[in-house]
Amino acid sequence: MPTNVDMLKLFTDAQDVPEALRILKPVELRGYLVGGRIVEWAGPMQRVDSPIEVRRGGPPEPVHLGSCPQLDAQAGIAAVEAVRQAWDNGMGLWPTMSVAGRISRVEAFTGRMIEERDTIVRLMMWEICKPLAECRVEFDRTVEYIRDTVDALKDLDRASSRFVIEKGIYAQIRRAPLGPTLCMGPYNYPLNETFATLLPALLMGNPVILKPPRLGRLLYAPLMEAFRDCFPSGVVNVVFGDRTLIGPILESGAISVLAFIGSSAAASAMRTSHPNPNRLRCILGLGAKNPAIVMKSADMELAVAECAAGSLSFSGQRCTALKILFVHEDRLEEFIERFTEAVAAMPIGMPWTQGVRITPLPEPGKCEYLSELVADAVAHGAKVVNAGGGRSAKSLFHPAVLSPVNAGMRVYHEEQFGPVVPIVPFRDMATPVNSMVESPFGQQLSIFSDDPQEVAHLIDPLVNQVCRVNINCLCQRGPDTFPFTGRKDSAEGTLSVGDALRCFSIRTLVAAKGTGRNKELLAAITREHSSNFLSTDFIM
Description:
The protein is an alpha/beta fold. It contains 18 helices and 25 strands. The chain has two domains: about 10-285, 3-Layer(aba) Sandwich (Aldehyde Dehydrogenase, Chain A, domain 1); about 290-485, Aldehyde Dehydrogenase, Chain A, domain 2.
């Protein structure tokens, strides 16, 4: 059984860190991007240390990664003014630019971004402790997402590059931008999830204020110059800070779109701080408590493999993670035996370790919070059923599997966002179904069953509780062309390649009666390419 001392030994000596991954010099990011300029910040700085600790001849100590600006309200107002000027009441260069023109700028930026792949991946690994292989996947998936979004926009534009004739009215229907946008992503996918809102917002013509997540900030340092060079002044503004910065941005009333991935409480506070909340379009990815339902007929080998990966990939720090497992009583003992074996086989260690699954937790105080959940469950009758479950050392937390869990325990209701796996035995389907009905969350669920009638009877009611039902597989976001959203407090708006473009835009049309004079007028405009909106150009 692993002890706290054993786990402490997983924090290695500094010389054992692979040379290509070492932080040779801290990243002192003193600038922020506003109005097409990287502005030097003379105010307070936020120190950034890694949750990874290394030994340098003594006990483990945190690795210093660098620092970034802790911007104030005045900097927030400057960003608002920059984005307001770039928008210019919808008459700015970016919102009136042709689709092809915006695509060319995004493609130029993507090329610059790819040049920084190794640096971004290394900084991501150290700051959020995601396994190195997964950091590389996140970067590559983000590039793929950008390219897929560009292709989707081309398809959308080609479908709009013609006139519609209806009841004697000639019209061209396109999508137009909404206005200044505030993009804020989460720490667990600091690049991919942030870009999942940033890029569609930009491609549709919206100037953006981007605030990187509180964990995963330094990886934006290598991108600052690329943002500055590839986009017109004020179209991309990158700021760093907390509520002191964000409050004035929203309170200004200049923001038309809030794209935020985080907690529902934070989203509600930001929405209500806007002076005209009814004019603020929100695209939100919020909390989730995705359940797995393991039926009596389930293929147990498959169910265990998918539930282990689904609940503990990146230490359970995914909104799509399986956060509660309902297991039929007749298969409970078998499931627990196999599941705890799968958990015991998961390598724990530093993120550069080959095949590692459980790595240090980046959130301050997270181990203490998870320990509280485990203690509460045990106090109410659950047991830690896996060897070493719940032990911790510094920022490492050994996965804890809890059973039997019931509704009187905090872990039954709270989104743990970490390596704690509650197992709820059930005999009557009312147990998992009622849990979902009463839950404030409604993102996804997984059903494990080989009985077609059983699955069919579950699908019909459960698609009205969540937005994706996974059959015999874990919950996940991809493929990125599939809709990604949620019900209740889990989401607002849909993030997928095609849907995101629509979220950050609005259908707009130019119409005229089909008189001879109007036909000649419209033909002249399109023939002479004098309008970017009223155009029959076909993007290849």
